[in-house]
Amino acid sequence: MKIRILFIITGIVLVTASCAYEKVLKSGDWDFKYIKAMEYYDKGEYVKATTLLEQLKPRLRGSDKTEELSFYHAMSYYLMSDYIMAGHYFRTFVKTFFHSPRAEEADFLAAYCYYLMSPRSSLDQENTYNAINSFTLFKSKFPNSDRVLECDRLIAELEEKLVEKSYLTAKLYFDLGNYKAAMVALRTSLTEYPDTKFREELMFLRLKSSYLLAENSVIEKQQERYQSAVDEYYSFLDEFPESEYIKEAEKIYSSVQEKITEQDINAN
User: Fold this and answer.
1) What is the CATH classification number for the domain harbouring 8?
2) Residue 249 near residue 236, CB atoms below 8 Å
3) Of 99, 105, 93, 106, the residue nearest 146 (C-alpha)
4) pLDDT digits (tens, 9 = 90+) for 137-170
5) Based on the number of CB atoms within 10 Å of its own CB, is 109 exposed (0-12), middle (13-18) or buried (19 or more)?
6) What is the rounded CA–CA span in Å between residue 113 and residue 105?
7) For 191-233, how does the pLDDT look when each residue is reduced to its tens digit (9 = 90+)?
8) Is residue 248 assigned to a domain?
9) Domain limit, last residue, from 101, 130, 158
10) What span, in angstroms and rounded, lies between the C-alpha atoms of 82 and 76?
11) Is the model's pTM score more than 0.70?
């Protein structure tokens, strides 16, 4: 019985609240709507707040409330975790109110929205690049900001994700047996991120790709490609003489030497 009464009371409260909100939506009193929009925002009812703010913005454009409405409009989307819309409105705010005391926060949050939308390293990294560029631009615009160190930390985290993405792409070509594409991707990854934590493995994969590419080549191209594998072996050995891959690297080198010797004999 008590539970039934509780449901009835809850239903009455919801209906009453819904009717009250409908009344606010239909009201032509814009000051009243503004007050209610801020109340809904403060209570965390961001959907209601956003709806009212979207009604208010064109009506109060040019007034002393325009800046505040625009900022809280963006914040409402941000607090609802709608980072696409939040980022858009934060960027619009910065362009429109670049002298505002809130411009620094809005600019940072616009970049942070990109950061929050940055996916795991195996996926497309467009938002990662956007976040890095936005944080970098923020630092140039607000060099004395307390948020600069945070930008540096987030940029470093995002760049590590790009390093891993580059590594995964190169390794994927290798795993698929596309050794020519793997060679290009591996070389690109090592050039773009020379200090990557994956450097040892990438160098070894470049050696192995070079060898397997030669193995799967037509006879006319094998000699040259085996020689490239020898060059890759010495580059790897020079940099990682005590590598965990050194035994396999030596086996590859021995096999390549045999192949080259065999081809030299056959050529004569």
Assistant:
1) 1.25.40.10
2) yes
3) 105
4) 999 999 999 999 999 999 999 999 999 999 999 9
5) buried
6) 12
7) 999 999 999 999 999 999 999 999 999 988 998 999 999 999 9
8) yes
9) 101
10) 9
11) yes
Q: CA 128, CA 119: separation in Å to the nearest integer?
A: 8
CB 76 within 8 A of CB 50: yes
| Amino acid identity at 261 | T
- Radius of gyration of the chain from its Cα atoms, rounded to whole angstroms: 30
User: Higher confidence at residue 254 or residue 29?
Assistant: 254
Residue 151 lies in a domain: no
The last residue of one of the domains, among 77, 101, 125, is: 101
Phi, psi of 97 (to 5 degrees): -120, 55
Residue 2 lies in a domain: yes
The encoded tokens of residue 85 equal 């819309």
- Of the listed ranges 70-74, 95-99, 112-116, 263-267, the least confidently predicted one is 263-267
* Domain of 260, in residue numbers: 198-268
Domain count, the chain: 2
